[in-house]
Input
Amino acid sequence: EDQVTQSPEALRLQEGESSSLNCSYTVSGLRGLFWYRQDPGKGPEFLFTLYSAGEEKEKERLKATLTKKESFLHITAPKPEDSATYLCAVRAYNTDKLIFGTGTRLQVFP
Amino acid sequence: SAVISQKPSRDICQRGTSLTIQCQVDSQVTMMFWYRQQPGQSLTLIATANQGSEATYESGFVIDKFPISRPNLTFSTLTVSNMSPEDSSIYLCSVLRGRAETQYFGPGTRLLVL
Output
């Protein structure tokens, strides 16, 4: 069964304190791994898509990496405005639907 | 990206009633999805709605409870029928767009059932 597990559930960082969020997955043929940011009361906002092991994508203070079993979202020198829930999802080859993890709730304090 | 709007943005409803949620997209898309996000939980797919065919429902969701319409390539509705407090959730519309097949999400409809 396709599955996504994210850790930690919650993360509190001081402004400027870099860290990483983990997304472990099992899927019957990875078609894509997706990272989203979700602010309270809003829909998920697309961040990155990764397709194959070794691939990396960057956007401002965020960098996503992918291996055959997991993905990391690295946050460098975070700011309070980076506070949000970060969701990871996978899509298998035989389907169009996304399987979501439960997310990591990030809080960055000044 | 995709510009997706949903109506209503939020509602408070009495148990036993029904609510229809509308999803409008800024350009034509083949596939539209409806998700539910219960308080403190992640997203769960309710159904996939393709224009011109019946919606495909995920395990645990049935058409009588969540009827879906897809009259054209830019619009869909989800009805939550005979509501109970357990239906209190955020309901999200999503579309597949672009060669990268990225899924984009609407702002959501926050539903509270009393």
User: Anything to note?
Assistant: Chain B touches chain A through 23 residues (CB under 8 Å). The CA atoms of residues 31 and 86 of chain B lie 28 Å apart.
